[in-house]
Design goal:
- The chain has a single domain (47-211), classed as NagB/RpiA/CoA transferase-like (Rossmann fold, 3-Layer(aba) Sandwich), CATH 3.40.50.10420.
- 29% of the residues lie in helices and 20% in strands.
- It contains 6 helices and 11 strands.
- The protein starts with 6 loop residues before the first helix and ends in a 6-residue tail after the last strand.
Length: 217
């Protein structure tokens, strides 16, 4: 007699049999520590610069804080940047040294064009900037400004997101920030007619000025 069993029935029969007669093999502990991705031999600064730039971020390396003041002043003049805003005390001090006008008044926040912030760390592998609500800039400046300027230091570079989260836990202990976020390139969306638009729900451009505080003479 010809076997009339369909392929579907054969598969279902095998599945039922497998569920009834479970394999005695035990699965070992999951390795959560080993790296999933190949480890690059490039310095973290170069990894971050390459990955960040590939995402349409603008990267500027500065040998020291003096060079940051000079570079930022040049960008501000060359691009005719106005309505520069920051709440970070360290950045206020740097801008004041360069005689660069800025505002730190809450009433000016909504009309901010250029927003300067610090960050918690930079993720080299993904070219991302990690920020939290614990920073003086809070949640608002990275979203409100048309141009988000991040001032960071070489000592803040970490390899991956896991390392960044570990740093956050070590820094804040049991008082973790209510918001931990990574910014990976300018905001963009393709929801409207499948056309990629930058700055749809956040800054049109993001700059990272990386100040070297490791290789100091």
């Amino acid at each position: 007699m010809q076997d009339s069993t369909t392929s579907k029935e054969k598969i279902l029969k095998k599945i039922r049999k497998a569920l009834i007669h479970k394999s005695p093999q035990e699965i070992g502990d999951v390795d959560k520590e080993s790296e999933i991705f190949a480890i690059s031999e490039e310095p973290l600064e170069i990894q971050f610069a390459q990955n960040f730039s590939a995402l349409n971020g603008k990267f500027v390396f500065c040998e020291n804080e003096t060079e940051f003041i000079e570079n930022f002043g040049f960008f501000a003049r060359d691009n005719q940047w106005e309505n520069i805003f920051t709440l970070e005390p360290a950045i206020k001090e740097l801008l004041a040294k360069g005689n660069i006008k800025f505002s730190d008044k809450e009433e000016d926040l909504l009309k901010t064009d250029i927003g300067l912030t610090l960050c918690e760390c930079l993720i080299a592998r993904t070219g991302s900037v990690m920020v939290t609500s614990k920073q003086a800039s809070g949640r608002r400046i990275p979203v409100y400004s048309n141009f988000h300027i991040v001032v960071a230091y070489s000592s803040q570079l970490v390899n991956n997101v896991k390392d960044g989260l570990k740093l956050i836990k070590e820094r804040y202990g049991n008082q973790l920030p209510s918001m931990i976020s990574t910014i990976t390139g300018p905001s963009r969306t393709a929801d409207i007619e499948k056309t990629l638009v930058q700055g749809a729900h956040g800054p049109r451009e993001i700059f990272v000025f990386l100040i070297d505080d490791i290789h100091v003479d």
